[in-house]
């Protein structure tokens, strides 16, 4: 899996964080480690990680559960998040974490070999989700986009304005604008119209889009 990207590790416990980082490295990923949620929230504009390993108990005002929600809002619900916890390990705690969107829930202290296999399984599931509904693998351009960016691109192709996209996704117009700038950069284009035209040409959006997509693509 070498060269597949990064795995985000957020844990205030040095021993646990080091163990999770070693798991990421063994799987061939670059580990991005942080001790608290604030350090991660400041850098949500970076490339999306392949997976996130997050401790439920984090110092500061943002818990691991809240950070998970922020990560899914920024990168899409397909991002696998594995929660770690030393104090909340009852069946009810685990169920709550999974219901809130965690891909897996691991009690501390954990065995590195077990965590490695759990991360590997989550990455495989995420890879399966990444295959398009028609059975083909994503194009190179598509893989550069985060799930959220692909979602916004599809809404742009459907003729939605920035304000309408924000309302649909329950995020701020400013966040939508940031995502749009990122996807324009990744696609190597300079306008939303060019992005929609490329998305249609590469099959990143459905072929049965409305006629106004073509009108948008010609307005420069």
**Molecular shape:** elongated
| CATH-scheme architecture of the largest domain | 3-Layer(aba) Sandwich
Major β-sheet annotation: 5 strands, parallel
User: Quick one: CATH superfamily of the largest domain?
Assistant: Response regulator
Quick one: CATH class of the largest domain?
Alpha Beta
Beta-strand segment tally: 5
Task: Tell me what portion of residues adopts beta-strand conformation.
Answer: 5-15%
Mean pLDDT: 81
* Quaternary: single chain
The helix-and-strand class reads alpha/beta
Number of distinct helices:
11
Per the CATH scheme, the topology name of the largest domain is Rossmann fold
Separation of termini?
A: 41 Å
Residue share in helices? 40-55%
What string gives the helices and strands in order? EHEHEHEHEHHHHHHH
Spatial order of the strands forming the largest sheet = 2-1-3-4-5
pLDDT < 50 runs, ≥5 residues: 128-138, 207-220
Structural account:
This protein has 220 residues and is of the alpha/beta class. It folds into 2 domains: 6-130, Response regulator (Rossmann fold, 3-Layer(aba) Sandwich); 140-218, Winged helix-like DNA-binding domain superfamily/Winged helix DNA-binding domain (Arc Repressor Mutant, subunit A, Orthogonal Bundle). The protein has 11 helices and 5 strands, in the order βαβαβαβαβααααααα. It has a 5-stranded parallel sheet with strand order 2-1-3-4-5, sandwiched between helices. α1 links the parallel β1 (6-10) and β2 (30-34). Mean pLDDT is 81; it is low at 128-138 and 207-220.
């Amino acid at each position: 899996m070498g060269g597949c990207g990064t795995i985000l590790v957020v844990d205030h416990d040095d021993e646990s964080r080091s163990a999770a980082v070693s798991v990421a490295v063994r799987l061939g990923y670059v580990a991005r480690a942080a001790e608290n949620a604030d350090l991660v929230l400041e850098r949500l504009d970076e490339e999306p990680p392949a997976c996130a390993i997050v401790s439920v108990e984090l110092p500061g005002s943002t818990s691991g559960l809240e950070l998970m929600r922020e990560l899914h809002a920024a990168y899409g619900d397909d991002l696998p998040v594995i929660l770690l916890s030393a104090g909340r390990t009852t069946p009810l705690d685990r169920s709550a974490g999974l219901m809130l969107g965690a891909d897996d829930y691991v009690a501390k202290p954990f065995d590195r070999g077990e965590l490695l296999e759990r991360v590997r399984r989550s990455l495989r599931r995420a890879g399966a989700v990444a295959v398009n509904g028609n059975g083909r693998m994503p194009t190179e351009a598509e893989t550069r986009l985060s799930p959220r960016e692909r979602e916004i691109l599809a809404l742009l192709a459907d003729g939605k304005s920035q304000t309408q996209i924000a309302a649909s996704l329950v995020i701020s117009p400013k966040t939508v604008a940031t995502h749009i700038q990122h996807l324009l950069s990744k696609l190597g284009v300079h306008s939303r119209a060019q992005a929609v035209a490329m998305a249609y040409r590469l099959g990143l959006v459905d072929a049965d889009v409305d006629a106004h997509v073509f009108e948008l693509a010609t307005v420069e």
